[in-house]
Here is the input.
Amino acid sequence: MKWRRFVSFPILAVLILMEMVYYGTVFVFLDDWLGLQSPAGWINAVIFTSLASFTLFSFFVSVLTDPGGVPSGYFPDIEDNDGSDQESRDAEALKKRCDKCPAYKPPRAHHCRVCRRCVLKMDHHCTWINNCVGQRNYKSFFLLVAYGTISSLYSSVIIIGCGIQKDWDSTQTTHIKTFYITSGAVISLLSLTLGTLLGWHIYLLTHNMTTIEYYEGTRAAWLAKKSGQIYNHPYDVGAYRNITMVLGPSIIKWLWPSSLGHVKEGTSFPTVRDTL
Here is the structure.
């Protein structure tokens, strides 16, 4: 069952971290700074709660959504070039067969040794969601990182604001000062980590790449340069189209992690050649 994926230490650690950040931000720092009964405090609490809810929802969708497996009976589409016979086409098809599981691999699919199967448009296997990131859950994973980054930055602002307005010359114990400094350092580090990850996946999203394809492309570009050629990623069909293929054609639905009606079967993808 999919819910068994939650029986994992990294997932429990993420859930505990989310709970600690939410509770501390709202009921400790925000309450101490503005007061939850004040209009400013209430509005900030509602905004942060909304961000935290979207982060948690994106996390659940990422964990529970199957990233996409190779359809049963899939066979690669081999171009019938002039002069090619059945034997040569069979040999070409054999090159596209996974050597770890009895299945042919569609374009952009890779075998995950953790999941022990081929995953469509595999980006990577993420320990923190106990699941692969692939064709059907990349959107929710991207939004998880995006909402998590915004939430942690918002929390940082609240913690810093609370610390600035606090009267440290009064009877404040060393323990309280240590708590504030530690909390600020931890949430700042979390913001930096998530922000860096978000920047990386924005780059991948706008170039229609997976993490695996980026490193494969780096090697391909190096080999092409040695032979005097230029390597171009074949699936980069323009930034806007790249984005809509993942987030969807409707901008309103971009922010909803479970809106996946636009996601295709994942066995074929448009290429630069198709746009020419």
Q: What stands out?
A: Helices lie at 9-33, 39-64, 86-95, 138-165, 174-206, 211-226, 239-247, 272-275. The beta strands are 110-112, 117-119, 124-126, 131-133. The chain has a mean pLDDT of 89. The radius of gyration is 23 Å.
